[in-house]
Every structure is written in structure tokens, then in C-alpha cells.
Design goal:
Two copies of one chain form a homodimer.
Chain A lengths: L9 H17 L3 H17 L1 H18 L3 H7 L3 H15 L8 E6 L5 E8 L2 E6 L4 H12 L3 E5 L5 H17 L7 E3 L5 H8 L7 E5 L2 H10 L12 E5 L5 H13 L8 E7 H16 L4 E4 L1 H6 L4 E2 L13 E7 L2 H11 L4 E5 L3 H10 L4 E6 L16 E7 L1 E5 L5 E12 L10
Subcellular location (chains A, B): Cytoplasm
Protein name (chains A, B): Gamma-glutamyl phosphate reductase
Keywords (chains A, B): Amino-acid biosynthesis, Cytoplasm, NADP, Oxidoreductase, Proline biosynthesis
């Protein structure tokens, strides 16, 4: 649509190499890609000491700057997490190849055979912060979908990301695939990111994952298409007809099992009819786990020691052991609260009433709606996509967890026998 | 993501009304939507005298400004075309409702039932030029997909668009659906368009259709997600193994049946082995229909009266009776030419060799690839989508002709029985 920047900065040169590599990746068949991804997983495990050492340097630097606990948790690797990263890559390797799949076929009345066939997007730019696992997850998913990937991680994880990307590129080299197919950018200045975001001839999609500041910056400067991975303000609504023991399980799991991630719960909404029965149990279980509650007047009438919630606590992504609580009159009030304060990420209803569940699902336009299941399952791996490249809160192309298939696009392949649209074109010669 | 403009300009007020109407449209079931669309088609036909009169005023104003023949063809309505517009709306009414459809269902090992269910996008802004049929097509498709629509047409078609939108809104009113669900903007200043394009809290998707200037303007100013409908530089490659009579049919149909539209052919590529046999027949058939050829040296060696092609003729969207011609050494050279000069819209191969067809399809990343069929079939109606809202050349969300389904998005609905991610969350109370 517009010419790429001329003059060939280092970034543009890197992107051109990535674009050239993309054609090679697009041509790999399913077996070659599987072998490649297995080799990448092996390379990560083989490089575990280097990666953990690099991560220790990142953590030391972060600690020296006084990093918060949620961010530290996102940054930190350990042998288990590293094994999980490699296992995630193997999980992607085992998935069916999305490329070349014919998703629909129709014969038109005039005999044209119209197929929809999945092809790769091309070059995907991943822009992220803190979590070094994204380096491997994004590379695996992009390659599985036949794309090349440009990785622009955060400065706080630069050593970890470099070590992981180095392992991945060794695997590419070993499999005879151009290393430029996985390109970790090391110029982390904002100007370089702006230059990246304007290369709409060389980059097909940018996926920002991170804090509000990053997402806004990308949205402001992008000329390339963007799928936002915005904040997760996940709600649990405990319905009048809820199984309260089940609801308590979902609450504790959603809030405490990993508070620093986007599918953690941030707000609890409780139907007034069960507030007396549920709130004291919830408060006891959560305070035993160090969670601070912030409640409305109706909550504080039942739990007098709870701190009052400010208006901005509803809609806040705490990413920490803090929970906003509100008592609502009915399901419609819960829906209205979520519509007003939610982020379209993931909402949960606990109820034994199928009609209430259906109304909750239909009334909300969030990417993921759960009935009697923890918000923490809002994750590509848990929902069957293999690893995920993120959770889209953009209502376009992909909405919710994005796996390899979301990194492809359907195009039309039409086969005919000389059909023309205008009969007078026949016998032209 | 960001707050809508405060203060409530007339545009923002209109968009808020549209957003409110969107919730009502999203809740309509398939039968209500079918009735509504039938009523819209009836209303267009009932208003035919008014619409044609309004169109005559637009044409008179355009003629006074000295409009070109291709643009005039896009702007012009006649009883047949108006009947076609109403028939297109009825075609959409007859399509299966894309909303609420469960496209996939999987039970995970832990018992979670994961479904993908289509929901509307919300509010779609259609930004277009010249062709007044877009007013009806876009409204029908957006409503069929459960969306509200904001229509921002070109000033040259303002009377036609106002007459058509008036008919559509009468139908909405008659069916008890808020009129704000179809909103024709009449402030056509560029500043108003910029304001529209920045309302990412109120508009879910912008679809620009028109000339390069419009598309660039939208891309430059949009904060809302955009699917571009960029130019169609469609190629016909006549392979060595082509049936030359069939190829000639595709050529004449592609170039002359409606040269002012984006799926018309702009460039002919001929394999050197059949150039002697094909080019004289092509030149005779095309010049009989008033087509000017612009050729490379190898073409002019066979057709000495043909004017030399300038480099910029390859990649030009003439939208007129002009055709660029090049002789290529083989299929790979044809692919390389299209990759360099194409617009990713629609490409055609004429060949009887299945291997050549497969290689052509696989090597190109265009939205539509045709084998032995006219490029003029690259159209939502012809490819089975009912009417189309446009032909996307953005490799995201939808690629190629976009119908009602492309105006929805899949989200996740997950049903469980109290599953938690972290076992220690169990028995929390």
C-alpha cells in the first residue's frame, strides 16, 4: 500500500530478511514444521542452563530497580517453567497444521468450485513485555502457521529473550530454515518501535501484549494492522442459584492461583440473595490467602472490616492479591456492571440455573464467557489451541485466546472451465 | 480502550445512538432479521422513483463537474440496477443467520466443554465513494450479521444515498427496530471523518472502499480497526498449456464486461510459447471493443501498433478500457511479476495443466486465485456470500469478498462443573 522506508536502516534490512524467510516458512509442509518445532523444544531444553543464567541476570537487574511482585513473577523462569515452555512448543508441534486446510467447498450453480483455503499471514511482529516465555510461544505458533516472526520484547527480559531466541535460531539453522524467520530485535528504543509499526509493506500484523502504556503506544503509532491484547478485568458473578462451594472454588482459584496474569479475577459480584451466606465464607478463604477486599456498602454491611471500594477499583486490573467486591440485585445488574467496567476479556457465572447461564452468556460480548469454570482456564493451552500467542480483546480476526490458526487467513481458490460473467464475452475470437 | 470524545458533538451523539441500537439488532433472531431485510428490499423498490430522481440529480452535478466514464458508471443507477440492489438485499435475507452459530465444540480432558460461537462485531462504519448500491448492501449485511452500521458515502452520491437510506429507515421503523441502526452521515467534511475514525469506543470496525486517496486517509487517521478494500490490479496469466479460446473468453470478459470495477482485469501476462498464437487474437478481440493495449517489447514485436507500456502501467488500476500486456518466459516469471506489481486482490490462470494451476495457486498470496474462470467472479454474490460489503485486501479477519459472516467474530463459551486450574483452590471454604 505504501512503499517501505527507503535507505535500508538496520531494522528495514532485518524486516526484509524476515519477509524473504517468510516465503520459505510458508512453503514448509506439516512434517517439516513438526520436525522443526521439536528441534526448537529440544534446543530450549539443551540451553536451559544458559537461559536460567540469563534470566537470573534479568531478575537481578529488575530487583536492583525495585520490581513489584507481579512483574517479578512474570519475568521469572525456573526449571519447571522452562520445561513448560519446551512442552508448549511440543504441544504446538503436535497440533494439526492450519496451513493449506480447505475449510469450505461449494459448487456454484454455474459450475465454479469455490474453496476457502488457509494461508499464512506472512510476517507477524510480536511486541511484549516481561514474560520471556512469549519468545518461544510466539515463535512456535508463528512458524506452525507458516509465518516468520519479529520479536520485540521488553528490556527487562533482554538476556532471557536473547538466550531463548538463540536456542530457537540454532534449531532453525540445524533444520535448514533461514534464521531470519525468527528475528529478536535488540534496539529497544521507542523510535525503533515506531519505525517497526509503520512498515506496513513488510509486516502483516502486530500483536502487542503488555501494559496499558504499551498498547496505547502501539495503537497510536501503528500503520500495520494491530490485534490488541488489552487488560483482563475478569469478573465472577455468583448467582442466586449458585452452588456456593463451587463458587468459592472458582473464586479462590481465579484470584489466588496466579494473580499476576490477565485471566485472574479482579472483581466479584454477588447476588443479594446469597450475599449473607457467601461473603463471609469468601472473606475467610481469601484473607487466609492474603487477599485484600475492597467492597461496596452492601458488602461492608456484611463484612465491616472490608475497606470501601473506590469507583476506580471496579474496572481495575490489580494483577495482585486485591479483589473488588459488589453485591448486585440480580443477574441484569451483574451484566450491567460488567458491560460498564469490563474489558471484554473473560467473565464467569456460577449458577445451577441453565436459564441464568444462557442469559449471562447472551447478554455479554466478552471474548470468553465461562459457566461454572475458573477464569484461569481462559488460556489457549487450556482451551485446546496448544500454546497461545495471546488473548485478543480486539473484536476482529480473533477474539479471546489466539493459537496457530489465528495466525492464518482464509482465501478463495476458484476453479472453473472457462466461465465468464457476461455472456457476450463468449466466442470473442 | 480510550474514552470516547466527551462533550457530545453531533457525530458522537449519533454514534452513541447507533451503539445503543446495536444491542437491539444483536438481539434480533433470524426470523426477525429476515422479515426486516425483506421489508428493506420492498422499501427500496417502493421508493424507486425517488431514488432514481435523486440519482439523476447526482449525475447532473457530476456531469457538470466533468466526471470520467468509469466513475459515472459507478454512480449511475437505473431501474435494472435498482432492482438488482433490492434483489441483493433479498439474497442476504435468504442467507443463513451467522449469529449464534456454534462453529466448533470440544470437550477437554478435564471435562470443560469449549464452544466457539459467532457474535456480531457491534458498530461497523462503512466509508465509501461513488457507488450508491453500497448504502443498501452494507446496511443489509451489517444488519444480517447483527450489527448497526454508520454509512459515510461520497458527496457525489449524497442524494442517491439519502434516498436509499431513507427507504431503509422507513423499513426499520415499520419493523419496530431503532432507526439509528442505519445511520447515514451527512457531514462529509474530512474533519468529521477523522472524528469518526478516532471513536474506538463507539465504532468496532471501519471499512473504507474507494480510491487510493480515501484508503490512505483512513489508514493514516484511524484508531478504530480498519479492513482495507484497496485497489484491484487483477492479472490474467495465459499459460503455455492454456486453451486459447477459453483464455480469450476470460480476457474479454475480465477487461470489457465492466471496466470500472475492482475485479476487472488490468494486466495480461502471456507465456512466450503461446504469444504468437494468442496475442493477435487478443488484440483483435479487444480493439474491436475499444480497448487500448500497452505492451512490453516482446508484445510489440508481435503487435507493432501497440503502444509501449511504461513501468507504472504494470500495477496500475486503470478502471478503464486500457490493458497492460507482457510476455513472460514461464509460470515462475508470471508469479514474480504478480508478486511485484499485484495488489493481492484477484489473479487468474488459464491452463489445462493441473500442475501449473496448483503451482500458480500455491505461489501467490492473493485473496482470490481463479483457475480457468473470469476475474469478474471475484464478488461476494458470485462466490456464494449473498451481497458483499467489499473485497478485503487486508490479510486479517477477512481476505477477499466479505459477506455477512465476515461481520461477525467467534468467541469462546465454556461450560464446566466447578473445574479449577490449581487443585489447592478446592475445598477453599
Amino acid at each position: 500500500m505504501s512503499e517501505p522506508h527507503q535507505g535500508g536502516s538496520a531494522l528495514v534490512e532485518a524486516l526484509r530478511a524476515c519477509r524473504a524467510a517468510a516465503a520459505g516458512v510458508a512453503a514448509l509442509d506439516a512434517a517439516r514444521k513438526r520436525t522443526l518445532l521439536e528441534a526448537m523444544a529440544d534446543a530450549i531444553e539443551a540451553a536451559a542452563p544458559d537461559i536460567l543464567d540469563a534470566n537470573a541476570r534479568d531478575l537481578a537487574a529488575a530487583d536492583a530497580r525495585g520490581i513489584g511482585p507481579a512483574l517479578r513473577d512474570r519475568l521469572r523462569l525456573d526449571p519447571d517453567r522452562l520445561h513448560g515452555i519446551a512442552a508448549g512448543v511440543r504441544g504446538v508441534a503436535a497440533l494439526p497444521d492450519p496451513v493449506g486446510r480447505t475449510t469450505r467447498r461449494e459448487t456454484r450453480p454455474n459450475g465454479l468450485v469455490v474453496e476457502r483455503v488457509r494461508i499464512p499471514l506472512g510476517v507477524v511482529a510480536m511486541i511484549y513485555e516481561a514474560r520471556p516465555n512469549v519468545t518461544a510461544d510466539a515463535a512456535a505458533l508463528c512458524l506452525q502457521a507458516g509465518n516468520a516472526v519479529v520479536l520485540r520484547g521488553g528490556s527487562e527480559a533482554i538476556h532471557s529473550n536473547t538466550a531463548i531466541a538463540g536456542a530457537l535460531r540454532r534449531a532453525l539453522r540445524g533444520e535448514g530454515v533461514p534464521e531470519a524467520a525468527v528475528n529478536l530485535l535488540t534496539d529497544l528504543r521507542r523510535e525503533a518501535m515506531v519505525e517497526l509499526l509503520r512498515q506496513n509493506e513488510l509486516v502483516d500484523l502486530a500483536i502487542p501484549r503488555g501494559g496499558e502504556g504499551l498498547i496505547r503506544f502501539v495503537a497510536e503509532h501503528a500503520r500495520v494492522p494491530v490485534i490488541r491484547h488489552y487488560k483482563g478485568v475478569c469478573h465472577l458473578y455468583v448467582d442466586r442459584a449458585a452452588d456456593l462451594g463451587l463458587a468459592l472454588d472458582l473464586l479462590v482459584d481465579g484470584k489466588t492461583s496466579r494473580p499476576g496474569v490477565c485471566n485472574a479475577l479482579e472483581t466479584l459480584l454477588v447476588h443479594a440473595d446469597v450475599a449473607d451466606a457467601f461473603l463471609p465464607r469468601a472473606a475467610a478463604a481469601l484473607s487466609a490467602r492474603g487477599v485484600e477486599l475492597r467492597g461496596d456498602a452492601a458488602t461492608r454491611a456484611r463484612l465491616p472490616t472490608v475497606r470501601p471500594a473506590a469507583e476506580e477499583d471496579y474496572g481495575a486490573e490489580f494483577l495482585d492479591l486485591v479483589l473488588a467486591v459488589r453485591v448486585v440485585d440480580d443477574l441484569d445488574a451483574a451484566v450491567a456492571h460488567i458491560r460498564r467496567h469490563g474489558s471484554d476479556h473473560t467473565e464467569v457465572i456460577a449458577t445451577t440455573d441453565p436459564d441464568a447461564a444462557s442469559r449471562f452468556v447472551a447478554a455479554l460480548r466478552s471474548a470468553v464467557v465461562m459457566v461454572n469454570a475458573s477464569s484461569r482456564f481462559s488460556d489457549g493451552g487450556e482451551l485446546g489451541l496448544g500454546a497461545e500467542i495471546g488473548i485478543s480483546t480486539t473484536r476482529l480476526h480473533a477474539y479471546g485466546p489466539m493459537g496457530a490458526e489465528a495466525l492464518t487467513i482464509e482465501r478463495f481458490v476458484v476453479r472453473g472451465e472457462g466461465q465468464v460473467r457476461h455472456p457476450a464475452s463468449r466466442g470473442a475470437g
